[in-house]
Design brief:
The complex is a heterodimer of chains A (493) and B (143). Chain A is an alpha+beta fold and 493 residues long. Helices cover 32% and strands 23% of the residues of chain A. Chain B is of the alpha+beta class and 143 residues long. Chain B has a single domain, classed as Archease, Possible Chaperone, Chain: A, domain 1 (3-Layer(bab) Sandwich). Chain B is 24% helix and 43% strand. Classes of the chains: A alpha+beta (493), B alpha+beta (143). Chains A and B meet through α8, α10, α12 and α14 of A and α2 and β6 of B.
């Protein structure tokens, strides 16, 4: 069956449906493809995907050492080199590492925090909470964190990640148990990071950023708990419970590391590595080369800085809730559910063709979704599968899901958000930030934003429908929905 | 205005085409466009701080990328919003060099209407080309 006939990319004509929500572009569709490309989507979501997705998922299939397929998740849209929602597993001995397969905002990710509160208890306090969060969690252009770190201290953060924060009393020890990689991936080496990247990152620990980064107070409606047992294990255990979710990454630090290494790989690709690709944004180096290993070690610094960033923000959230509600954070039950990374490359063991293989898995705007029984899942979730946190637009809603065994088809990877359907410029033309703020208030969502222009860019209508994305990952068996959250307060970067 | 934003082509980010009769003007226009992505009212910027800028590369487009990266760097490290002045682009043995100054002031949320935080200048569609009237550059910023 062919794909819906919209868009201009010639590649759309080559797309065939291999399952209800799985579409394939064969390697014959574009010269240089080494493996087929697969897009996970409902027919409706596929039709909405921009042409860039089809070209880019095919380009990724050209990377040396790619194993199986080049993938795109249901929330996929155009990105740099890889599509956002892109996934590629590489043979670590013969394959490449590509900063474009990880993204500029290394370890951009989501953190979900539960509370003992129900909405009625704090309905009237939402504006006060949001206003205080807005003040205490810096956001927007050039935002600086409250931590004043020396170069040496920032180097420690880059190596020790969230553990550094907990050791310095910016968190609870159990927070680390609930963070992917326990908040610090091994092998980070600040010596592989430029002075410029260190300078950009040093002041930004504990800042939200801008663009699609946000901090939300949300409510779990009773009808939105789809898997009560799993929700209970995650601490989502009462009707109309209040939770907090936020999305941010490694800020200028990750961006500078990506920029530095993309620029350093470019002149070497043909001259030294004999690699030719159709897009400079796919700049890469053999993973086993000195250059590839240097980037891997530098990228890990940004992964750790990002875990630390989210840890510091959680610390601020606990302070704000305790102050505004005049109750201790532990008494309020402000416990982490989980912290997931979106933009990473990690060495993982996966079964391919009936045998276990070590693979370098690039996920860009895609979430790891390990199934029950797999290693690296917190003990509490060992029988459940890893929690997956998927944020929607600020107007719609967000989800927590869990990893399942059928996720093996995508190296245990699922979607990361709703994915943009409209460009920022288009959204700014169509929506007015101030009006949007007013409309949201009418619908019970109190919002504070650094910038009205930025707010307009993030209007709900600029995004795909989050429920469609979740339906697609559920139908495809990439992860199973546990609960849906409705926003009631939002701080927008 | 010697730059125009590209409306619908970049779903998540911001693209623009900057032009000028000379490369100096073209680079200057690209830096002005980058500033406007971050600051909706660039006329509010007062020239209180000055930073020298020097960017070079084997290729002209990468020289522009590195030149624009200076604006991002000072925004993140010193919280300075800056605009270009006295930019001179020259071809030398082994590549291209852009020299000049950036002037502006620290971010002041009271006076500055802040928009998107530019996080990187990307290679995507990056191009500096000759036109009938001079030079034109296409740039996509990650925001």
């Amino acid at each position: 069956m062919g794909a819906p006939a919209t868009g201009r990319s010639a590649l759309r004509q080559h797309v065939t449906r291999v399952a209800d929500t799985v579409w394939e572009i064969p390697p014959t569709a574009k010269p240089g493809m080494r493996v087929p490309a697969r897009i996970y989507a409902t027919a409706e979501l596929l039709a909405q995907m921009d042409d860039g997705v089809f070209e880019q998922v095919a380009n990724v299939a050209m990377l040396p050492g790619i194993v199986g397929h080049s993938f795109c998740m249901p929330d996929g849209h155009w990105g740099y080199g890889f599509p956002i929602g892109g996934l590629a597993a590489m043979d670590p001995d013969h394959g490449v590492i590509s900063p474009g397969g990880i993204g500029f905002d290394i370890n951009c990710g989501m953190r979900l925090v539960r509370t003992n509160l129900v909405f009625d208890e704090i309905r009237d306090r939402i504006p006060a909470l949001v206003d205080a969060l807005y003040k205490r969690v810096p956001a927007g252009v050039g935002a600086r964190g409250f931590l004043k770190l020396s170069d040496a201290q920032f180097g420690e953060v880059a190596v020790r990640g969230a553990a550094w924060c907990v050791e310095h009393s910016y968190g609870w020890p159990e927070d680390l148990d609930r963070t992917e990689e326990r908040g610090a991936i091994a092998g980070a080496d600040p010596e592989r990071v430029s002075a410029r990247a260190l300078e950009r990152g040093r002041q930004q620990v504990g800042t939200l950023g801008s663009g699609n980064h946000y901090l939300e107070i949300q409510v779990v409606r009773p009808e939105h708990i789809f898997d009560p047992e799993a929700a209970g294990v995650m601490g989502i255990d009462r009707p109309n419970q209040v939770v907090i979710m936020f999305h941010c990454g490694s800020r200028g630090f990750g961006h500078q590391i990506a920029s530095d290494y993309i620029q350093s790989f470019l002149p070497l690709m043909q001259r030294k590595f004999d690699i030719t690709l159709p897009d400079r944004d796919l700049a890469c180096a053999p993973f086993s080369s000195a250059e590839g290993q240097a980037y891997f070690a530098a990228m890990k610094c940004a992964i750790n800085m990002s875990f630390a960033n989210r840890q510091m923000i959680l610390h601020r959230i606990r302070e704000v809730f305790a102050e505004v509600l005049q109750r201790d954070a532990r008494d309020l039950g402000l416990e982490m559910v989980y912290d997931v990374a979106h933009n990473t490359a990690k060495l993982e063991e996966h079964e391919v063709g009936g045998r276990k293989r070590r693979l370098l898995v690039h996920r860009k705007g895609a979430t790891r979704a390990f199934a029950a029984g797999m290693p690296d899942i917190p003990a509490a979730f060992r029988n459940l599968g890893q929690p997956v946190i998927i944020g929607g637009s600020m107007e719609t809603g967000s989800y927590v899901l869990r990893g399942v065994l059928s996720g093996q088809q995508t190296f245990f990877t699922t979607a990361h958000g709703s994915g943009r359907a409209m460009s920022r410029k288009q959204a700014k033309k169509q929506f007015r930030g101030k009006q949007l703020e007013h409309d949201l208030a009418q619908r019970g969502i109190y919002i504070r934003s650094v910038s009205y222009a930025g707010l307009a860019e993030e209007a709900g209508a600029a995004y795909k429908n989050i429920d469609d994305v979740i339906a697609a990952v559920d139908q495809a068996g990439l992860s199973r929905p546990v609960a849906r959250f409705t926003p009631v307060g939002n701080v927008k970067g | 205005m010697p730059y125009r934003f590209l409306a619908d082509q970049f779903t998540a980010d911001v693209g623009f085409v900057a032009s000028g009769r000379t490369l100096d003007e073209c680079f200057t226009a690209a830096a002005e466009a980058t500033l406007e992505v971050m600051l909706a009212n660039p006329q509010s910027l007062q020239p209180r701080e000055l930073r020298a800028v020097h960017a070079e590369s084997e290729s002209l487009d990468l020289a522009l990328l590195r030149f624009l990266e200076e604006l991002v760097y000072y925004k993140d490290t010193e919280q300075l919003l800056l605009r270009p002045t006295g930019v001179v682009v020259t071809q030398r043995e082994g590549g291209w060099v852009a020299d000049g100054s950036l002037e502006g002031e620290p971010i002041d949320a009271g006076r500055h209407e802040l928009c998107a935080d530019v996080k990187a200048v990307t290679l995507h569609r990056l191009e500096v080309r000759r036109t009938n009237g001079g030079w034109e550059a296409t740039v996509v910023l990650d925001v």
